[in-house]
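Researcher: Structure prediction, please.
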Amino acid sequence: MLRDTDATVATVARKVGYEDSFAFSVAFKRARGVSPSVWRRQSADPNALTPV
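Model: Predicted structure follows.
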C-alpha cells in the first residue's frame, strides 16, 4: 500500500490493523530499518538518500 497508493501512512496503518500511525511506524522501522515515509520515498526513487 505504501508503494502502490498515495494513502497517508496513518491511513495505511489503520487499514493494516494499527489504531495509531506511531505504533505502525515503530513496527515498520523495526522490520525494515527505515520509517514508512522513508521507505516510500526510496521505493519511488531508489537513488534517494535516507535522512540521517
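Model: The helical segments are 9-15, 21-32, 36-44.
Researcher: Thanks, that helps.
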